Request: fold
Amino acid sequence: MKHILISVSVLASIILISVIVSCRNNVESYEDFFKKGKTEFYNQNYEAAIELFSQTVKIMPKHSGAYAYRGDSYFKCGKISKALIDYDNSLKYNPKYVRALYGKATVKFYIGDYLNSIIDLNKTIAANKNHLDAHNKRGLAKFQIGDFYGALEDFEQLIKLDSTFAEAYYNKAITLFELSDTAEACLYLYRANYYGFKDSLYLDKKICSKYWKSFVKN
Reply:
């Protein structure tokens, strides 16, 4: 009887150890899937990334990062509705997760929902005040709804954060053109070109060259 009890005890210990090892393997597996998913994502293999992030949340259903990255992957594949669902799931588990906030804002911008994009960009910047792309996109969204002075504030703030951010100079120039401030706009186009934003060359030649010539004549 004593031997039977010992055998049962040993068997129970083996089962317990197996369960612990299995749990540990699961923990390692979801981290493994997530890392592999990010590798595929940055290699632009978005379908493969989606599958790996899906495996991650299957094991760890509250993995905010996996939802956000899968949302990015869905967006890259043009699956807008699925992307938004994933961003919302990510934010459910981590309301201040910058990647999900910015991703959601980007999708809203892409579909032309500029007002809601601005709301999500406000949250992104509140979570990370130095988020360059968020400042830039918020400026563009404000431009789209006709808030040109608000757009200028964002582009100016972006330039303060990074004085070499060429697109900020270009976007500020375009906004200044809308406000009929041609002289200032041309100066910012020149700076955009200086920092490597080649799209500025066309407007510089088309508008600013003529403007400066007429300015000199007068």
About this structure: The radius of gyration is 26 Å. The chain has two domains: 18-110, 129-218. Residues 1-8, 10-23 have pLDDT under 50 and may be disordered.
